[in-house]
Design brief:
Chain lengths: 121, 418
């Protein structure tokens, strides 16, 4: 006997309605329009993940903040942990898009990268 | 007074203006982009979330990254950027634009003008909500600027009115930054934003979404102290008696729509009453021959990618106009048929190149057929809704067919099918 679940795919703006059937360790996904949907559903059942975007403080720059993103989706349960870690960080201008702010966050293999150019004031 | 001569003057350095300016210089003409802010990028600078660029760059970018790709192109290709410039007046007869700059008045003479002035957020005063007028009420974009650019948190406990994507994204953003978001209210019986944003901005943080609900009163002496929520009937949209309840919050975030911004030209350039933006043809040309327009001041688009594509189109046509001094004059009207809301372009030169028609459907439909010229060509679209624009590519073949059959107008209908 399987366990059924309906989830909305967040891989892209289309937002497909995915039907997931769980039979022990076997997970079947239907309703997805691409491979990313299948991966998303699989992760959502086993270990939900999210790409996180936020800001870090910058001193001596043309702006007080530089925006950041995770290089890939991190486990959802680590989300607030990551936000807390980012609060502790202050960078010195200049910072560049692609600069690494946190390397290998909590051993996930995922980095936090700068997404805004902040030049020196 | 300073006087500057140029081939193309672009007003507004957001997504549309940056794309248009790049196209003009690529074709060997001088392009000056004027921007009232310190730097270009427009609202992209404060949209630090990702999801931009899937159409244009085939990858997912954040707003600042998306803007940066164009800023880089502008620098490499030699777009002249004049920032901190504020337009005072446009002289339609002499093709002159008077501006105020840090060093005084500057007058630009140009062969073409490309209007890329975007949209403004619908403000609190426009909602006519009774009650006090305390501090603590912000549009979502203003709150976003505070949090993402200025490092300022607007309050402690917030409520969001309107479920457009910006409102949903701000609900998440404020939660991450330590505010308590009590909920999101939407007057319509369905959410305004994308399904993915309901999931990742509200569900992920257990933020409740109240549909068919709105704010009917705001209270507070100096700072907002509470709001009153009321349910509304799905059909009649009248308030449900005795459904009012008070929620204590110090911050109200508004995500209640965008209004195309065209004060500079609306006295002499045609504006469409439903789009609320400038009427353009498939060249991006307005009713004034030398003025082109693209972006949210034409129609409010869902995706920045679409705005970029429209900006490019206007930049290309404007270059053609600089070169030839004229573009084909004969155009036919695009007519709204069944279930068509916002639609652009509104005029089409059938001798022109293929283009994209953007349509906001009038209602939600499981399966819809978009029909051009009463069935001359049809397109099937799944799960259409007013919150999401439909884009239709009008090919050279279709244009030729419309011309061959002698259609006086291009009628567009959207009908629900089984």
């Amino acid at each position: 006997m399987g366990n059924k679940k309906e989830i909305t795919c967040i891989a892209c703006p289309i937002g497909c309605s995915l039907h997931v059937e769980i039979n022990g360790s076997e997970i079947t996904v239907t309703g997805n329009r691409c491979k990313r949907g299948e991966n998303y559903a699989f992760n959502e059942i086993t270990n939900p993940r999210r790409t996180v975007t936020s800001n870090v403080k910058v001193v001596g720059g043309e702006f007080p903040l530089a925006s950041v993103k995770t290089s890939d989706a991190i486990p959802k349960k680590m989300l607030f942990d990551l936000i807390e870690s980012l609060r502790e960080i202050t960078l010195k201008a200049p910072v560049h898009i692609g600069d690494t702010v946190i390397k290998n966050f909590r051993d996930t293999g995922i980095d936090v990268l700068i997404t805004r150019e902040v030049g020196k004031k | 007074m300073n006087e500057i001569k140029t081939d193309a003057l672009i007003i507004g350095g957001g997504a549309a203006g940056m794309a248009a300016a790049v196209e003009v210089v690529e074709r060997g003409y001088r392009a000056i982009l004027i921007e009232r802010d310190e730097s270009t990028g427009g609202v992209l600078n404060q949209c630090i979330h990702n999801g931009f660029g899937l159409h244009v760059f085939k990858k997912e970018l954040t707003g600042p990254e998306y803007a940066h790709l164009f800023q880089k192109q502008m620098n490499q290709k030699g777009v002249e950027i004049h920032s901190n410039v504020f337009v005072l007046e446009i002289d339609r007869k002499n093709k002159k634009v008077t501006t105020m700059t840090r060093s005084g008045i500057c007058e630009y003479s140009t062969k073409v003008l490309i209007m890329c002035t975007g949209a403004r957020e619908r403000p609190f005063g426009n909602l006519r909500i009774p009650g006090d007028r305390p501090a603590g009420i912000f549009t979502a974009g203003v709150a976003q600027k505070f949090v993402n650019l200025m490092n300022v948190l607007p309050g402690k406990k917030a409520f969001v009115l309107g479920s457009g994507d910006i409102g949903l994204i701000m609900a998440r953003r404020l939660t991450l930054e330590g505010m308590k978001v009590m909920g999101v209210a939407e007057l319509m019986p369905y959410p305004g934003g994308l399904a993915r944003n309901i999931v990742q901005c509200l569900d992920d943080f257990d933020i409740p979404l109240y549909l068919s609900t709105s704010v009917t009163k705001v209270s507070g002496k100096n700072r907002l102290e509470s709001i009153t929520l009321c349910e509304f009937d799905r059909e009649t949209r009248e308030a449900v008696p005795f459904s009012a309840r008070e929620v204590e919050v110090d911050t109200l975030i508004l995500s209640v729509g965008l209004i195309p911004q065209n004060e500079l030209v609306e006295d002499f350039v045609k504006v469409d009453s439903i789009n609320r933006g400038l009427t353009v043809d498939n060249y991006g040309r307005t009713s004034e021959e030398w003025i082109f327009a693209a972006g949210n001041n034409v129609a409010v688009y869902d995706l920045v990618d679409f705005v970029t594509l429209e900006g490019k189109n206007a930049g290309q046509s404007a270059s053609e106009y600089i070169k030839e001094g004229i573009l084909p004059k004969k155009t036919v009207k695009v007519a709204r048929g069944l279930n068509v809301g916002v639609i652009t372009p509104l005029r089409v030169c059938t001798y022109g190149q293929p283009f994209t028609l953007f349509i906001r459907p009038g209602k939600s439909m499981k399966k819809a057929v978009v029909s051009i010229c009463g069935g001359l060509k049809t397109f099937v679209k799944m799960a259409v809704k007013p919150a999401e624009m439909i884009d239709i590519t009008v090919s050279s073949d279709l244009l030729e067919n419309i011309r061959a059959k002698g259609f006086e107008e291009i009628k567009v209908d959207i009908e629900e099918v089984e």
